[in-house]
Amino acid sequence: MSARPTIAVLNGPNLDLLGTRDPRLYGTATLADIEKSCRRTADDLGFDIDFRQTNHEGVLIDSIHDLRESAAGFVVNAAAYTHTSVALHDALAIVAAPIVEVHLTNIHAREEFRHRSFVAPVAKAVIAGCGPDGYAFAIRHLAALALDTEQKDRSR
Ligand code: DQA
After folding, report:
1. Is residue 89 in a domain?
2. 78 touches 12 (CB < 8 A)
3. Best mutation site among 103, 111, 135 for ligand 1 pocket (most ligand atoms within 8 Å of CB)
4. Per the domain annotation, does 35 fall within a domain?
5. Per-residue confidence (pLDDT) for residue 21, from 0 to 100
6. pTM to 2 decimals?
7. pLDDT (mean) for 119-131
8. Which of 64, 78, 88, 104 could crosslink 82 through cysteines, CB 3.0-4.6 Å?
9. 103 lines ligand 1 (CB under 6 A)
10. What is the domain count for the chain?
């Protein structure tokens, strides 16, 4: 079995309720639908996915610690913790692999308290407002970055 690089996809609180949670805002795709599409996108690019969701800040941070040395990249939709969690910022700051922050909605077009992100300063890129497609865009970008790093390493 060849070990394929893994992209971690971490989801924060209330995203487990996608599909029924305010569909006019968040759409009708469930988190299981998003996971399926992430796996399909990653598989086409030769990557595995470690897909997680939690409603607990400490569990989210434990996942980052868990994956910080093994994941080739991180897709992070920390949901409401994006706007509140210094602990999340600090955990992500320790990660060497690139991070893409994703939001289903355009957080900058919503309430002012959503305009601030503790993830953005430690992210390589931020994707907001593309719905579930944002996850696929993030995976494509991380895969391109990983391949670029691999090529640079090989030419050294
Ligand atoms: C969200 C935006 C956050 O402001 C909100 O708390 C969420 C979902 C998004 O994906 O649009 O729960 O991260």
Report:
1. yes
2. yes
3. 103
4. yes
5. 92
6. 0.96
7. 98
8. 78
9. yes
10. 1
Strands 48-53 and 71-77: unpaired
Extended beta strands in 12-62, E state: 48-53
Q: Return the pLDDT at 152.
A: 83
User: If you ran DSSP here, which 8-state letter would residue 73 be given?
Assistant: E
Q: What are the residue ranges of helices labelled H in 46-132?
A: 57-67, 86-93
**Residues 75, 109: Cα–Cα separation, whole Å:** 21
Condensed to tens digits (0 to 9), the pLDDT of residues 55-92 reads 999 999 999 999 999 999 999 999 999 999 999 999 99
107: its two tokens: 């957080």
- Mutation choice for ligand 1 from 18, 76, 102, 107, CB with most ligand atoms inside 8 A: 107
Q: Which residue minimizes the CA distance to atom 6 of ligand 1?
A: 80
Residue 1 lies in a domain: no
Q: Is residue 149 part of a domain?
A: yes
- Give me the domain span that covers residue 42: 6-154
